[in-house]
């Protein structure tokens, strides 16, 4: 078992974590100020969303220089200090790595606009087909996947127009990223979370099959060349440094996940973020929601627990709505947040806590589309308006799904505590009740619960090494065991707002003392139990 598998991860979205200089934007010195907080929480690794130089069309996921720090966030000296100070506290950093596209402000792309430039083929520049685009592909952010150059040709972008796709068939592309990856590993970074890592290589640029969304997907999704690229990066760069890779993988099932994880020389990733459980409450795409079904959700989680050797466990991140708002309850806010934390920290795999999740932060309470800053949100609002979606439905889509739900500033105290200036994105009004300061002083808070549960996970190997086995998945109950040769625990989760009866005939010690005695047969709304049971 590798060292990272025993750790607990925490994701920081730097722009919204902590502002040290009052300009309303979170920064690296602000993260340094909160390292003791992270240490007290018990996390070992921090995934840092992009801090590279960027024009911020997609807030850092449009990178203009991979070897520089965005001045809004600080300097390279600040970054080096962050890595050093984190190490003193037993905290190590992994960085986001975007290899599918750059910013249109990157020097490579600017040079590529010249047809005679050696950088021309770093990207996909193509002539149109008469009055038509080079092909019929569509973007992940909505709309066409091609935008026009000044010379009348077009360039490919699977995401925003300001994020042109890189051409991994170019022989220089691997060498360019080898330099980038080694640069950061030499700084002391322990690994990378690789953004949309299975759509980098395009087999062909012909038209895609007719489909409602993502026309062209079959021509770039998890291609053989993509697998080859990842295997080479791992073998030649990552392994010599003893680092690791976490992949964000688009539309991946368990079979393809195992291909990406691999073994020996075929190994590509150490773990990956799958989306199937995130898709459980939607039709086709995330913007079309349906009622959350706990049984469907738990069955998907179970399938992934049983099908791949190691999972990256997450319930929210910078791209997903807040888990309490999505899977929990406003009325049972504390109870549902604790239940979800129990799920997160007792499944097999590496748990990823997203900033604010540990205090139960919720979706934003914005009243106008003007309050939102996310480029994807703006694009979907415009597209749905063009398609004549009723305003009430457009607004419901945005409120439930916008990425800004997760990107609102961290709530440090009742006044906000994020910045002495005006935050770049408005803070949720519930900061007065949901904040770190208040919960630190409350031994029964969500934050205190996270701390206890992380401590328990670190104390008992069963939560890291134990075999996962499903026991019961009906009526909104999710029951499973984790078992090693020396210990067995039963986890019982009520994922509903109703009282539930559950009979069991097990004797043993309850590891979390704030729960009712073991003889209790009725579970309260969103109650979670962790019970040590007799070992066979």
UniProtKB/TrEMBL annotation:
InterPro entries: GH, GH13_cat_dom, Glyco_hydro_b, O16G_dom_2. SMART domains: Aamy. Residues 11-407 form the Glycosyl hydrolase family 13 catalytic domain. It holds the Pfam family Alpha-amylase. Belongs to the glycosyl hydrolase 13 family. PANTHER family: ALPHA-AMYLASE FAMILY MEMBER, NEUTRAL AND BASIC AMINO ACID TRANSPORT PROTEIN RBAT. This is Alpha-glucosidase.
């Amino acid at each position: 078992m590798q060292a990272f598998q025993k750790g607990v991860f925490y994701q920081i979205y730097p722009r919204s974590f902590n502002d040290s200089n009052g300009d309303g934007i979170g920064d690296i010195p602000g993260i340094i100020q909160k390292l003791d907080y992270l240490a007290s929480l018990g996390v070992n690794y921090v995934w840092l969303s992009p801090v590279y130089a960027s024009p911020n069309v997609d807030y850092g996921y449009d990178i203009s220089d991979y070897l520089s720090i965005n001045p809004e966030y600080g300097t390279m000296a600040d970054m080096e200090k962050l890595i050093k100070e984190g190490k003193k506290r037993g905290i190590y950093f992994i960085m986001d790595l975007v290899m599918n596209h750059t910013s249109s402000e990157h020097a490579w792309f600017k040079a590529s606009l010249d047809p005679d430039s050696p950088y021309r083929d770093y990207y996909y520049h193509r002539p149109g087909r008469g009055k038509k685009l080079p092909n019929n592909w569509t973007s992940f952010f909505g709309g066409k996947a091609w935008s026009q150059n000044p010379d009348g040709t077009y360039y490919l972008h699977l995401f925003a127009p300001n994020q042109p796709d890189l051409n991994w068939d170019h022989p220089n592309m691997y060498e360019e990223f080898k330099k980038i990856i080694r640069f950061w590993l030499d700084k002391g970074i322990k690994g990378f979370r690789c953004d949309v890592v299975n759509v980098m290589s395009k087999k062909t640029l012909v038209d895609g099959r007719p489909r409602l969304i993502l026309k062209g997907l079959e021509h770039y999704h998890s291609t053989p060349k993509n697998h080859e690229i990842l295997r080479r990066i791992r073998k030649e760069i990552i392994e010599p440094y003893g680092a690791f890779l976490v992949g964000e993988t688009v539309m991946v099932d368990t079979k393809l996940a195992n291909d990406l994880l691999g073994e020996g020389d075929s190994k590509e990733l150490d773990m990956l973020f799958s989306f199937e459980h995130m898709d459980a409450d939607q039709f086709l795409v995330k913007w079309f929601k349906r009622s959350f079904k706990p049984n469907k959700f738990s069955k998907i989680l179970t399938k992934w627990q049983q099908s791949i050797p190691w999972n990256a466990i997450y319930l929210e991140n910078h791209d997903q709505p807040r888990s309490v708002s999505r899977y929990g309850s406003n009325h049972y806010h504390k109870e549902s947040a604790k239940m979800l934390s129990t799920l997160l920290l007792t499944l097999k795999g590496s748990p990823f806590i997203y900033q604010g999740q540990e205090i139960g932060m919720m979706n934003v309470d914005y009243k106008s589309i003007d309050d939102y800053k996310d480029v994807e949100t703006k694009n979907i609002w415009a597209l749905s308006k063009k398609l004549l979606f009723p305003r009430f439905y457009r607004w419901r889509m945005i409120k439930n799904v916008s990425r800004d739900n997760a990107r609102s500033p961290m709530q440090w105290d009742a006044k906000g505590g994020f910045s002495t200036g005006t935050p770049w994105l408005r803070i949720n009004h519930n900061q007065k009740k949901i904040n770190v300061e208040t919960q630190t002083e409350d031994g029964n808070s969500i934050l205190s619960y996270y701390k206890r549960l992380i401590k328990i996970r670190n104390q008992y190997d069963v939560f890291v090494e134990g075999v996962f086995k499903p026991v019961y998945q009906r009526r909104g109950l999710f029951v499973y065991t984790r078992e090693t040769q020396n210990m067995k625990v039963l986890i019982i989760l009520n994922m509903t707002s109703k009282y539930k009866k559950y009979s069991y005939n097990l004797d043993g010690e309850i590891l979390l003392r704030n729960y009712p005695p073991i003889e209790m047969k009725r579970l309260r709304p969103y109650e979670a139990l962790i019970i040590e049971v007799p070992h066979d």
